[in-house]
Amino acid sequence: MNKLTATLITVSFPLLFLLIWSGGALFSKLGLQYANTWSFLFLRAALALVLLFVLFGRSVKHNNNGLKTHAIEKSELCRIIISGLLLQVFYLIFYFSAIKTQLSLGIIILILGIQPIVTKLMASAVLNKIDMILLAMCFIGLGISTLGYHKIEQINLIGIVLAIFALLSITFGTVIQARITTEPVLTLLIQTISAFIVFAVLTAVNGFVFSFNVYSLAALIWMGAIVSVGAFLLLTFMLRFRSAEKVSTLFFLLPLITMLLESVFFNTKLNGFTIAGDILVCVSLFLYQFKPFSPKK
User: Fold this and answer.
1) How far is it, in rounded angstroms, from Cα 290 to Cα 284?
2) pLDDT averaged over every residue in the chain
3) 135, 249 in Cβ contact below 8 A?
C-alpha cells in the first residue's frame, strides 16, 4: 500500500464517510415527512440498484475477461447476502421500528453507541486494557453529549428490545462484511438486490405512500445515491484495509456530527454538556485510532 492510498483510507475516507452518513439522519427525517417508512426505503434501494447496475456494467465493459472474473464461491456469497441483510435490511427495520414505539432518540443513540465496544470484543483476539479504557471514555462522552442534547421522555421495553436488535444487526453485519473479499461494487450490488426484494414486499403489504416534491426527491437522492452507494462503498473499502473494530469506532462520531449539523441547519443550541461530551469522544477516539503512545505490555 503506497503513502497516498494509506492517507485516503486512514483520513479522507473516514471523514467523507462520517459527513455522508451523518447527513443521512437529517435527510431520512426530511424524506419520512412525505412517505411511509417502507416506501421510502424501497425507493432508496431502487435508486441505489440502478446506479450499482451502471457501475457494475462499466466495470465489466472495461474487463477483458468479462463476467468470468466475477465468479463467487458459495460461502462468500452467503457472507455477502447475510451481511447485506443485517446492514441494509434488519438494522433499518429494527431502528425505524424502535423509533415508532416512541422510545426517546437519546436512548436509541446510547444503545447503538455500544456497537464499537461489542465489535471490539467480538473481532479482537487480544483485549488491550488501554484500548478498552479509551472505548469506555468514548461511550461516556457520547452519553454526556447525547443526554445534554436529547430529552429522555419516553422509555418502553419493546423499543429497547428493538434498539438492541438494531445494535446486534449492525455489529454482526460489520464483522461479517470485514471478511468479504469480493469486489466492492459487486458485493454492494448483490446486497442491494436483497434489500430491494425485502422492501418491495414490505411496501406491497403496507401500501405505497410517497409524495413527490423537491424536498422528498432531495432526500431520496441523498439516501439512495450518496449514502446507499457512496457511503457503503467507502465502508466496504475501509473494512477491506482496516480492522472491523477500528472502523466501527467511527460510529461514535456519527451522533455528534448529526447534532452539529442540526445546530447549523435547524438552529438548535448545543449546551455545555454536549460540547464537553463531544470533546471527550474526539480526544479518546484520536488516542485509540492513532496510538501516539506505546502501551506497556
Assistant:
1) 10
2) 86
3) yes
